[in-house]
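# step 3/5: fold
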Amino acid sequence: GSGALGLLQGVLSNDLSKVREGMAQYNLVLTDSGGIVDDLIVYRGEEGYLVVPNAANTQKVLAALSDGDGQDPVVTHRPDLVTIAVQGPRSTDLVGQFFPSAMDLEYMHCRGATYRDAAVLVSRSGYTGELGYELFLSEEVASAMWRELVEAGEPLEVQPCGLGARDTLRLEMGYPLHGNDISEERTPLEASLGWAVALEKGDFVGRAALQRQKEEGVPSRLWGLRMAGKLIPRPHYPVYSGEEDVGETTSGTFSPTLRLGIAMAYLSPRERFSAGDKVEIDVRGRRGESEVIRPPFVESSPK
C-alpha cells in the first residue's frame, strides 16, 4: 500500500527511502531503549516490500509492523514462502541455469522470475560472505526446486549444507548472529552496526535512545578476536586484559579457512581497545592470547 514506506521508516533503523524497486537493504528492528529485536533484510518488489526476519523472531517483527487499522498499509504474514540459499563461487553458474536473468544481478538487488509457473523472487544478498543468491518461492514448488538445484549442482561440486557450515562462514566474515552477538541488551552502536542506522532520516523506534547513547558515550564495542595458539574459543568465555575482566565472547569457533580459533566479543570500556591490541580468552581454565581485529577475519566479499 501507499503507506508501506512510512510504516517501515518508523519501525526500521535504516533509510528505506534510498531503496528503489529491485533493491534490498539490511535493517534492524529496535526496542524503545535501542536494543536489537532482530536484524533482517528488506526487499522492494513491484507491489511492495518483502521483510525477511530471522525465523525465531517472526512474531516480534510482525508485532512491530502491526499498524492497527488493517487498511493501508497492509501487513501480510507469508509462512507459505520458502527460502533456498545458494551460496559460493559457483552459485551464479547454478542459479543461472534456472533464472538466466539473475546472471547480471548486482549485490543487494533482487528480481522477479518464475519457476513451474510460480512466482519467485531471486535476490543476491550473499549472507555467508561469499557470492550467493536467495530464492523466495511458494512451498508448492520449493521441494521440486531444491531437488533440481541439488541435481544440477553435482557437476559443479555444489552440495547441501546446514546451519553449522553457514555459522563458520558468517563468523569468518564477522557477521553478527542474532541470539549470540546481537540481542535486545545490545544497541547497534555497541554492535558496530551504526552503518545500518540513519539517525538523520527522522523518528523511528529506538532513535532517541541511540542519540542519547551517542552523546553520552558508547560503553562497549563488538570486536573480532583471533587466537594466537591452538585453543578454540566458544561463546560465553571470559576475556581478560592482564588480570582485568574486560568482556565475554559471544561467538567462537575453529576457522576452517585460517586453521585457528576465532571469536567475537564485546570489550569495555569501548575507548580502551583498538585493532592490534592483545587480550586473553579463558578457554575452560586455560588462557590463550588473542589479537583484537576489525572483521572480516578472511579476505572474502559477497559483492
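# step 4/5: annotate
Residues 139-153 form the longest helix (15 residues).
# step 5/5: archive (pending)
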